[in-house]
């Protein structure tokens, strides 16, 4: 157990134990070893954190700070994250099990970009003057929403936190962040770094704990004005119900069962590569994972062969090794869930082409080999439910209409991929697929400037991009001034 891993509650720029004194273990899924024991927040701790956040909103050091200075603080936080990138990436990998190079270059790379992007936005947001009837001056103010509760998942712990924290702080809010119980460590370090670069106390509070206790307390708290949530669709529904009691502003980034559609006229090599990364990147624990690979029938057999061979090259191994492509599944519970779906696929008559095996590395850890099911029917469980593991379901289609129908045949609508050399077909598919993101001849592209979020039961509200920051983290006030008295 390392001495310098932060493992207590971060409230008002100070470390604290949980009021109950309770702690929980966070485990490295690649070894099964306990990384550290973490203070377990619950309702009284959420109360304290919300009090600290409300005090920050009233504190002139935050309330009256110039937008320019807010931008500077966010930029400094980006610099601090960059300066500590190896430490943060190692923590992320230990907690989550993903390959170190993914943590360092993909996760942390985008995290730094996100703070810089929203730093740039901090001093460019303003209201308008509106020409109303009568002798009045009417203008709008864009004000912060207030205290934002952020609840984040375990698959991209620091990324998902930052996609919410950066715009919320840029717009002048105060935040209480409840990271996932499986992966609380990078969020705690983030709180400390924010204080080091000069964010006043209470502006960013981090309370690790479980969903039904700390998470639910945050959603129900009357002192919280908005909830920004990323996680499962099931819990998203609970969050929305619980938030209704106090009519909080809610945004939900939920699950997916994203189609990756390969037409016969595609560059086959590129499509195979894109389908492989689409589902196996991040062990398939990616909300936008291309878990349904739809393939035009005329190239179906050829594609399945090439895809299976490509899957077999996804090396399962120690997340700290350079050559590892698939790290450890985040928890034993999640591993059981994934294996349950492998069994369901076999039982429903899908053809297991490769993978589907639970394995260990050096006799330890939660690992699964890259799995490809072919001849999957759209109605099967493995084609309808989010597995959140390295399991692809390959489904044949006949023509464009059939592809559109099958692509949209789920309750989800988070993302989609289209592979074709026909530009008209590409744009028609982009228009017809009901999803928040469509990638054409590529997959899993993200940028701080481009909005990301769901259609249908994948949720609503967007992360990233300038519009979403305004929508989620500001509210508009209309001011009327009589000019004739
Ligand atoms: P989850 O939805 O329970 O966890 C996400 C976050 O919500 C965590 O911080 C958790 O503590 C919190 N939470 C749980 N119950 C809550 C409640 N009643 N009130 C407030 N907050 C609550 O996800 P879980 O159980 O870890 O994973 C189960 C499945 O969910 C996965 O297999 C996957 O299919 C899906 N999932 C999808 C994610 C996505 O990014 N779309 C992320 C995580 C999970
Ligand atoms: Mg863990």
List keywords for this structure.
single chain, 485 residues, alpha/beta, Aldehyde Dehydrogenase, Chain A, domain 1, Aldehyde Dehydrogenase, Chain A, domain 2, 2 domains, 7-stranded mixed sheet, 6-stranded mixed sheet, 16 helices, binds 1,4-dihydronicotinamide adenine dinucleotide, binds magnesium ion
Report on this structure.
By secondary structure, this protein is of the alpha/beta class. 40% of the residues lie in helices and 22% in strands. The chain has two domains: 5-254 and 458-479, Aldehyde Dehydrogenase, Chain A, domain 1 (3-Layer(aba) Sandwich), CATH 3.40.605; 259-447, Aldehyde Dehydrogenase, Chain A, domain 2. The chain has 16 helices and 24 strands. The strands form seven sheets. It has a seven-stranded mixed β-sheet with strand order 14-17-18-13-12-20-21, sandwiched between helices. Helix 10 (268-280) links the parallel strand 12 (259-262) and strand 13 (292-296). The chain binds 1,4-dihydronicotinamide adenine dinucleotide (NAI) and magnesium ion (MG). Magnesium ion is lined by residues 26-27, 29, 95, 182-183.
């Amino acid at each position: 157990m390392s001495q310098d891993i932060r493992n207590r509650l971060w409230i008002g720029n100070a470390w604290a134990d949980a009021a109950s004194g309770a702690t929980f273990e966070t485990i490295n899924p690649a070894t099964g070893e306990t990384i550290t024991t973490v203070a377990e927040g619950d309702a009284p701790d959420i109360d304290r954190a919300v009090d600290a956040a409300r005090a920050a909103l009233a504190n002139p050091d935050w309330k009256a700070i110039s937008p320019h200075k807010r931008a500077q603080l966010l930029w400094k936080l980006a610099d601090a994250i960059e300066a500590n990138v190896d430490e943060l990436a190692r923590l992320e990998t230990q907690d989550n099990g993903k390959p170190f190079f993914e943590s360092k270059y993909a996760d942390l790379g985008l995290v730094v970009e996100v703070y810089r992007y929203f730093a740039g936005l901090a001093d460019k947001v303003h209201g308008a003057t509106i020409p109303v009837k009568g002798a009045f001056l009417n203008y709008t103010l864009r004000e912060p929403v207030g205290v934002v509760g952020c609840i984040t998942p375990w698959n991209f712990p620091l990324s998902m936190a930052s996609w919410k924290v950066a715009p919320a702080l840029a717009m002048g809010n105060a935040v209480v962040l409840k990271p996932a119980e499986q992966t609380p460590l990078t969020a705690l370090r983030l709180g400390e770094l924010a204080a080091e670069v000069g964010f006043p106390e209470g502006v960013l509070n981090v309370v690790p704990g479980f969903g039904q206790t700390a998470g639910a307390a945050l959603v129900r708290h009357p002192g919280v004005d908005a909830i920004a949530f990323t996680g499962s669709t099931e819990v998203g529904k609970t969050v929305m119900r619980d938030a209704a009691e106090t009519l909080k502003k809610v945004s939900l980034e939920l699950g997916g069962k994203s189609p990756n559609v390969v037409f016969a006229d595609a560059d086959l090599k590129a499509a195979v590569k894109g389908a492989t990364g689409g589902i196996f990147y991040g062990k398939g624990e990616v909300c936008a994972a291309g878990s349904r690979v739809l393939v035009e029938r005329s190239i179906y057999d050829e594609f399945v062969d090439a895809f299976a061979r490509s899957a077999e090259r996804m090396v399962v191994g120690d997340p700290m090794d350079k050559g590892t492509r698939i790290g450890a599944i985040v928890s034993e519970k999640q591993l059981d869930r994934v294996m349950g779906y492998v069994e369901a696929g076999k039982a429903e008559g899908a053809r297991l082409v490769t993978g589907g095996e639970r394995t260990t590395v050096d006799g330890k850890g939660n690992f699964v080999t890259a799995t490809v099911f072919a001849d999957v029917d759209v109605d099967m469980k493995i084609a309808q439910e989010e597995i959140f593991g390295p399991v692809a379901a390959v489904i044949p289609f006949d023509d464009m209409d059939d592809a559109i129908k099958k692509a949209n045949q789920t309750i989800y609508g988070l993302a989609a991929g289209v592979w074709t050399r026909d530009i008209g077909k590409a744009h028609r598919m982009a228009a017809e697929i009901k999803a928040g993101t469509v990638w054409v001849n590529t997959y899993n592209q993200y940028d701080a400037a481009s909005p990301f979020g769901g259609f249908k039961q994948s949720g609503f509200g967007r992360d990233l991009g300038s519009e979403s920051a305004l929508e989620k983290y500001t509210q508009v006030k209309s001011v009327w001034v009589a000019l004739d008295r």
